[in-house]
Amino acid sequence: MPPLWMFQAGALAALGIAAVAFYRQLRRLRQLPALSDVAPAKGDPRRGVLYALTLGMAPWSKESTRLHPVSYGRGIAFHVGIFSGLLVLAASPWLGRLPASLVLAATALTGLGAVLGAVGLAVRILDPNLRRLSTPDDLASVALVSLFLASAVSALLAPAALPGFYLVAIALLLYAPRSKIRHCLYFAFSRIQFGRFVGRRGVLPHPGRRVASP
Q1: Over the chain, what is the mean pLDDT?
Q2: Which among 127, 118, 185 has a CA at the least distance from the CA of 147?
Q3: Burial, 67: exposed, middle or buried (Cβ in 10 Å; 0-12, 13-18, 19+)?
Q4: Which of 10, 36, 52, 211 lies 20 to 30 Å (CA to CA) from residue 72?
Q5: What is the dihedral of CA 87, 89, 92, 97, to 10 degrees?
Q6: Under DSSP, is residue 34 helix (H, G, I), strand (E, B) or coil?
Q7: Could you give the maximum distance between any two Cα atoms of the chain, in Å?
Q8: How does pLDDT run across 116-140, given as a tens digit for each residue?
Q9: pLDDT tens figures, 155-185
């Protein structure tokens, strides 16, 4: 088997390729013509942005999440697991030096994310409505991220699993910019644009809900 540093170098190279791809997508996004709202302003765009990035994402603020709290909670925990798995990847050269309590916490969060990712994949396959709505990329993205989290847990429990973890990480990093995983890049921009629009129109925050001005 090749030495561990070669797997680490491959993961680092994949990270660089993904960063360049995301940067190009971001540059194209910023070059798109901005549409101006000619309607008279009735509110403060900053309040709308603040709401969109805070209470606007709360489960009680959207009907889709208010009516499906279990799915909402599963999605939140899945994404927490993803962040934990990415931190494991960043800290992987020094896993042997990390405190046992930190390793245990990372194992729990990442492992939970892996399990819930697999549950989400099963739901997409078994539920007739979700199956019709899901594209091959949807299934591949959830499966690859879940495998990444599972391999991160393996690396935390057994350092001998690090090469496999790096291989899965390389695959994920190379696939992410070309898949639905790139929504991590667009999410903040879409929420900010949404907040500016509805804030300027005076639609959000909803009447009766206090949101402090920035």
Answers
A1: 89
A2: 118
A3: exposed
A4: 211
A5: 10
A6: coil
A7: 66
A8: 999 999 999 999 999 999 999 999 9
A9: 999 999 999 999 999 999 999 999 999 988 8
Query: What tens digit of pLDDT does each residue of 181-195 get?
Result: 998 888 888 888 888
Q: How many other CB atoms are there within 10 angstroms of residue 89's CB atom? A: 21
Chain CA centroid to CA 168, Å:
17
What letter does residue 2 receive in the DSSP assignment?
-
Phi/psi of residue 2, nearest 5 degrees: -60, 155
Q: Are 167 and 13 in contact (CB under 8 A)?
A: no
Residue whose pair of structure tokens reads 């070669």 in the numeric block = 6
What are the tens digits of pLDDT across the range 98-107?
999 999 999 9
Is the peptide bond prior to 159 cis by the omega test (within 30 degrees of 0)?
no
Q: What are phi and psi of 192, to 5 degrees?
A: -65, -45
